[in-house]
Structure formats: structure tokens, C-alpha cells
Design goal:
Number of helices: 6
Mean pLDDT: 92
Shape: globular
CATH architecture of the largest domain: 3-Layer(aba) Sandwich
Largest sheet: 7 strands, mixed
Order of helices and strands: EEHEEEEEHEEHEEEEEHHEH
Low-confidence stretches: 1-7
Structural class: alpha+beta
Strand order of the largest sheet: 1-2-3-7-6-5-4
Radius of gyration: 19 Å
Distance between the termini: 39 Å
Number of domains: 2
Number of strands: 15
Helix content: 10-25%
CATH topology of the largest domain: Rossmann fold
């Protein structure tokens, strides 16, 4: 981790999406380096976005998640209490100015916005789901909060958990690719970097029995769309996001997976 000095900044990479962070707050940069250590890039490839962070971590907390997100002429702006920011992908520049004693957590949410938009611009989506890599393929478990994503991940040993909350999904030829992200919290399963081709999408339902249920095409698209975070709040993206979800639903099987709190659902999937 030789690229953590404030002068050098830090590059974070998810799949083929790389951003560069600069901040003159050394303690915040050190904390970000620890948080994203498995996703720090030493590649010489230019970043898709250079982000300038201006941080006062001695102030009361802000709440970036409740900030107003606006899109205008290719520029996303963010306005909230004790935080402002903007993202300009065309010119590869971005800035976030925040005043919060929980600066690292707020920056983490800002990076979710950044990667949501980057993946969208590259043809993919950031997806609220758990992903498990099993025999070279990625199984994606999704549903609203409380559906059981972390539970499914915890019962997926010995396979690798790519993430149990947020994944990056992107088209790759005639299939879709599932990539790990660093976006998690201490109560969740630690993500394993990397990715794999998508095997299938499984909308989780807690049950006493274990079985698969077909989802109709329209229902599958609606369930997928409901698990796309952040950008669904921007009306300008609505049509493109719907088309993206249709493409994903048509590229891989989508089932409703009824499962118990044990590993037996894997016997069914394989």
C-alpha cells in the first residue's frame, strides 16, 4: 500500500472502472486506504474520474444519503446538509466537500454514487444483491432489505462471497459479468475481490421449504429494477435503466428461490 500518501492520492478499481482520490486530510486517507485495501489499484492506466475530497472531520455529522441528487447536461450535483458535490464524467473530474465526524462513511456513500453512474455509462448497473462465486460462475441473490442476502452468503461456504450487499453487473459479449465491490459494513461478509460470469439471478424468499419458482418476464424485470440503487431516483435515467434491466433478465435465468437458514439451497442450484 505504497500509494496512500496524500500527495500521491489513491486509486480504487472495481472491475475495469478506476477512480482516483485526492485529499489533504491524512487521517481520512489512511482510513480509506484500510477500508479499500483489497481494491486499491497500482495500474498505470488513467482513471475514469479524478475526485477531489475536501473534508472537515471535526464537525457534526452530515447525511449524504438524504442529499438531493440532480442531473443536468451530463453533470450530477449533490446538495445536502453540510455536504456538496458534483460529478463530471465527460471531463473526468469530481469534487466532494463535506463536514462530518463520520467522513469515511460519507465518502463511501459518495463512491457508491460514482460507481453507480460509471457502471451505468459503461452499459452495466450497480445492483443491491449478494454474489457468490461457485465453480467459476457467479450466483446472484437479490431482494429487498431483510430478504436474506447476508444469510444466503453466510451459508455459502466454501464458495467465495463477492459481496453480500452491492455488486457491479456488466454485459460481456453474450453474457453478463458479476464483479465484487468494496461496499460493505463490519456486520456483513467480507467481500472477495474479482468476478465471474453470471450463472443466474435468484430473488430470495425465506421459507420452510427449498424450491425454485419461475418468475414471469415482466415480474423479473420489475424485481431487478427495484434493486438498482441511487440512479432510479434520477428521472432522466428511467427509460435506459428499464432497458438495462430487460437486457439483464433476458441474458440469464431469473427465479424466485425459497430457502431455509441452511446450505441446502446449494444442492438445488447445482
Amino acid at each position: 500500500m505504497n500509494n496512500l500518501s496524500p500527495a500521491a492520492g489513491m486509486a480504487i478499481q472495481i472491475a475495469n472502472l478506476k477512480v482516483h482520490l485526492d485529499c489533504d486530510n491524512q487521517s481520512v486517507m489512511a482510513s480509506l486506504g484500510w477500508r479499500y485495501q483489497r481494491f486499491i489499484s497500482s495500474s498505470q492506466e488513467p482513471a475514469l474520474l479524478n475526485i477531489q475530497l475536501i473534508v472537515d472531520d471535526n464537525s457534526a455529522s452530515c447525511d449524504l444519503a438524504s442529499a438531493v441528487l440532480e442531473y443536468n447536461a451530463g453533470l450530477i450535483s449533490i446538495r445536502g446538509q453540510r455536504c456538496t458535490g458534483w460529478i463530471d464524467l465527460e471531463n473526468r473530474r469530481s469534487a466532494l466537500d463535506l463536514r462530518s465526524k463520520h467522513a469515511v462513511e460519507e465518502i463511501d456513500y459518495f463512491l457508491r454514487i460514482v460507481f453507480a453512474w460509471l457502471s451505468f455509462r459503461k452499459g452495466g448497473i450497480l445492483f443491491h444483491a449478494a454474489g457468490v462465486r461457485c465453480h467459476g460462475l457467479a450466483y446472484v441473490f437479490f431482494g429487498p432489505s431483510g430478504a436474506g442476502k447476508t444469510t444466503a452468503a453466510r451459508f455459502s461456504s466454501p464458495y467465495e462471497v463477492l459481496n453480500d450487499d452491492l455488486l457491479l453487473l456488466a454485459p460481456d459479449g453474450d453474457h453478463w459479468w458479476v464483479a465484487s465491490t468494496p461496499f460493505t459494513n463490519p456486520t456483513q461478509v467480507a467481500p472477495a475481490p474479482g468476478g465471474a460470469p453470471l450463472a443466474g439471478l435468484y430473488r430470495l424468499v425465506k421459507d420452510e421449504r427449498v424450491f425454485l419458482e419461475d418468475l414471469g418476464a415482466a415480474e423479473a424485470v420489475a424485481e431487478i429494477l427495484a434493486c438498482v440503487p441511487i440512479l432510479t431516483s434520477v428521472p432522466d435515467f428511467a427509460v435506459a435503466l428499464l432497458d438495462r434491466c430487460r437486457s439483464l433478465a433476458g441474458a440469464a435465468p431469473v427465479f424466485q428461490l425459497h430457502f431455509r437458514r441452511d446450505h441446502t439451497f446449494w444442492e438445488l442450484l447445482q
